[in-house]
Specification:
Belongs to the Pal lipoprotein family. It is found in: Cell outer membrane. Keywords: Cell cycle, Cell division, Cell outer membrane, Lipoprotein, Membrane, Palmitate, Signal. About 45% of the residues lie in helices and about 15% in strands. It is of the alpha+beta class. The chain has a domain of about 120 residues: OmpA-like domain (60s Ribosomal Protein L30, Chain: A, 2-Layer Sandwich), CATH 3.30.1330.60. It is elongated and about 40 Å long. It starts with a helix and ends in a 6-residue tail after the last strand.
């Protein structure tokens, strides 16, 4: 019995190695040597390739010295009971739009939030209007709708637990959360 075990183990190991080697393709991506953030995704499904690119790091495509500071900002704030974008946020959203247009594999979740005042239902709707306002602006500026997901958390996830105007002002926001291929801001 022990002899069979000792013969079967090496055979199993060799067959696993051979199977893995037969499926592995050599790296032929020209960017693999010139771009340290690129990975060879040939032979992978679209989703697997997207995940591999995301794991490899961020993208510098569409990132300029002029828009780095705006790309670093990932929160847009709103006035009380409003889903109107402020003039201050247009440059931030424009920088993110330019990055997303230049990086078709990038995906972003737009999460809408409110302060604690008002009913849960009202705040869920207001958070959604805020997220949709940001989504609409990005789409108007050339971003593919499939790169965006608008979600509302209403008053459920405050960033500041205070019960005053300063806390409420921080909580009235949309967060821009990159889920795939975020900007490289080095």
């Amino acid at each position: 019995m022990n002899t069979i075990k000792y013969l079967a183990l090496p055979l199993l190991a060799v067959s696993l190695v051979m199977t893995g080697c037969a499926n592995r393709k050599p790296t032929t991506d020209a960017n693999a040597t010139t771009n340290p953030n690129s990975v060879n995704t040939s032979g992978l499904s679209e989703d697997a390739a997207l995940n591999a690119q995301n794991l490899a790091g961020a993208s510098s495509k569409g990132v300029t010295e002029a828009n780095k500071a705006f790309l670093a900002k990932r929160v847009v704030h709103f006035d009380y009971d409003s889903s109107d974008l402020s003039n201050e946020d247009y440059q931030t959203l424009q920088a993110h739009a330019q990055f997303l247009v230049a990086n078709a594999n990038s995906k972003i979740a737009l999460t809408g939030h409110t302060d604690e005042r008002g009913t849960r239902e009202y705040n869920m709707a207001l958070g959604e209007r805020r997220a949709k306002a940001v989504q609409s602006y990005l789409i108007t500026n050339g971003v593919n709708a499939s790169q965006l997901e608008a979600v509302s958390y209403g008053k459920e996830m405050p960033i500041n637990a205070g019960h005053n105007e300063a806390a409420w002002k921080e909580n009235r926001r949309v967060e821009l959360n990159y889920e795939a291929v975020p900007p490289l801001l080095k």
